[in-house]
Amino acid sequence: MIEHEVLDTGLDDGEDDDFDLEEVYDSELPEGRYLDRELSWLAFNQRVLELAEDPAQPVLERANFLAIFASNLDEFFMVRVAGLRRRILTGLAVPTNVGRSPQDVLTDISGDAHRLQLRHADAWTQLVKPALAEAGIDFLTWDELSDGERDDLYRYFQEKVFPVLTPLAVDPAHPFPYISGLSLNLAIRIRNARTGRQDFARLKVPPMLPRFVRVGDDSARIRFLPLEDLIANNLADLFPGMEVLDHHAFRLTRNEDVEVEEDETENLIQALEAELLRRRFGPPIRLEVTDDIDDITLDLLVDELDITEQQVHRLPGPLDLGGLFGLGRIDRPELRYPPHVPVTPFALQPAEQNGRADLFAAIRKSDVLVHHPYEPFATSVQAFLEQAAKDPHVLAIKQTLYRTSGDSPIVQALIDAAEAGKQVLAVVEVKARFDEAANITWARKLEKAGVHVVYGLVGLKTHAKLALVIREEEGTLRSYAHIGTGNYNPKTSRIYEDFGLFTIDEQVGRDLIRLFNELSGYAIEKKFKRLLVAPRYLRKGLLRLIEKERRNALDGKPARIRIKVNSMVDEQIIDALYRASQAGVPVEVWVRGICSLKPGVEGMSENITVRSILGRNLEHSRIFSFAGGGDPQVYIGSADMMHRNLDRRIEALVRVTSPAQLKSLEDLFTLAMSDGTSSWHLQPDGDWVRHSVGENGKRLVDLQDKTMANVQRRRRARAVR
């Protein structure tokens, strides 16, 4: 094993208590030093939109980015805007670090979000839709169809659509119907031809049918009609004897955040199931309507849904461009990114062709660092757990599960292990947002197979990505560990960029045994050796590491901080980085989403650089690198720099010690921060400026393509040897 200095993260380690952490907290920094987190999130989604607007991206990928933008914004309203509005209405304190009233923040959010939605709609109609047409993929309106095509689609309507439609009238005998969240609907005004009475009806566009209906079977061109357009032009079949006066599409977003008071319930699962039922009936947060809606219909919707004008978003049709995800079924590979073929790390490759790798033997030789999706999940993490389930020398498997698929081979491996008589512990986080119902389902499946399923600690989400295998070898028990930055989910591992470390380091093994005991029992662990664990020690451990860099810079020693996260929000961490910058420490932050830190402010953060990279893969890994005065301290793990991660979650970072692995992580970071790499640069005022083309007019390096090429190059170099 590689020798390394132990960073003791306990609270009573005298070596690290030779300075006062309150000095980091007690700031002399200026007011207004944070960017608003909600507006920063909208800026992130704008970066997604800019990829859709970029003609250099393959056109089907551009359509996919439009769908991602729409899905992201839906969740933003369901959770962030909903939570802010709920707290304002109930008089609860609203955390804000920008010195403005919560209502002003909400107004700004609504305005910026609406402007982005208009830009999103324009990107579809003016940019992506025409580009698809040039590639032979048309999106039509009913008026653009020939008579024969209308006849064919009418038959499709009668056979596939009409039977599942349910028009709901609104009159004295029929109250205004419940409108489910994110459903696409038609608001219809009709008139009785005999009495002249006008009524309103709501018709839900069936979500189980294709969002865009294929027109004809022309092999040369692929043509689609929006499903709501097909329905709208055949409303006479639904209201015989009535005159259809007008119809407009609308879509409602509801508050779908889930809150369970765990300390007031004896059964978390039952309480969560009840809360999921209540989620369906959460209060309205946003009403999207087409911009041609008439005042009568809009006034009715606003009144019946009890919403404000601020919550109404008028948009050009079609609504719900998340339906563009369905274009993934189109078989036109030339309109997508060239495929990346992942390469199994050399250490995990089988010794013989067509044989199976012995992952335990590989990990015994040295720590193994895997980088997904460039290196496959199936031949590393999945193979590790599958081998453990079958190995007669394995006595126990302990694992955290935050998000995974119901048919996951990870879940099956745990079931197989339990059925083989091994001790299996699964710490299941059933409160993972929007995966709650699925997690409950497969948690019960695990329990039925004999797996010991626990739900973590009261009041804390278990977000750490940990797997521990206890194996008997020559009369001695050895601990094989995997600590990752991403979920144990084979499906998302193909597009989520993450790291995972395999090790048999005894310190890591002891740390994980203690941590799992804390999660499953009543142990309160005070000491970890190679891990930084939230909520007790992670924030303090990082603050100490940042403070050491500040002191090293003042003492003339090598000093540098590099942090890669999804979000950078926590004020204490940000203030510590500001102080490090003031001492002359170069600070590089690589963030995918939210960043409340202001870089490049004279006297405060002129030594801080912030970059963001978005692309075909979702940058998801977390890296924390400190020069350490010549003794690098580098960690990977599950935690973002947010209050919830540091204060209300079980998170874990593990120290990487192998010189080769440290170089690999540093090389990746250097490539990401290079001016020759395509990225967005954060400005002091919160604007993100994209740098994708160099001064010579050539495209800058794509980090993800370059990383894949580097993996392939290393593979070829190994083959030559």
Automatic annotation (TrEMBL):
Record family assignment: Belongs to the polyphosphate kinase 1 (PPK1) family.
Chemical reaction(s) catalysed: [phosphate](n) + ATP = [phosphate](n+1) + ADP
Ligand binding (ATP): 72, 496, 592, 620
Keyword Nucleotide-binding: yes
Gene Ontology cellular component annotations, sorted alphabetically: polyphosphate kinase complex
Pfam family, any one: PP_kinase
Binding residues for Mg(2+): 403, 433
PTM per Swiss-Prot/TrEMBL: An intermediate of this reaction is the autophosphorylated ppk in which a phosphate is covalently linked to a histidine residue through a N-P bond.
Name of protein: Polyphosphate kinase
HAMAP family: Polyphosphate_kinase
All copies of domain Polyphosphate kinase middle, residue ranges: 150-326
A GO BP entry: polyphosphate biosynthetic process
Main enzyme class: transferase
GO molecular function: ATP binding; metal ion binding; polyphosphate kinase activity
Source species of the chain: Microbacterium protaetiae
Entry annotated with the keyword Kinase: yes
Residue ranges occupied by any Polyphosphate kinase N-terminal domain in the UniProt entry: 34-139
Domain Polyphosphate kinase C-terminal: 359-523, 531-693
Cofactor: Mg(2+)
Keywords annotated in UniProt: ATP-binding, Kinase, Magnesium, Metal-binding, Nucleotide-binding, Phosphoprotein, Transferase
Family matches, as Gene3D superfamilies: Endonuclease Chain A, Polyphosphate kinase middle domain, Polyphosphate kinase N-terminal domain
Role according to the record: Catalyzes the reversible transfer of the terminal phosphate of ATP to form a long-chain polyphosphate (polyP).
Active site residues of this protein: 463 (phosphohistidine intermediate)
InterPro entries: PP_kinase, PP_kinase_C_1, PP_kinase_middle, PP_kinase_middle_dom_sf, PPK_C_dom2, PPK_N_dom, PPK_N_dom_sf
Entry EC no(s): 2.7.4.1
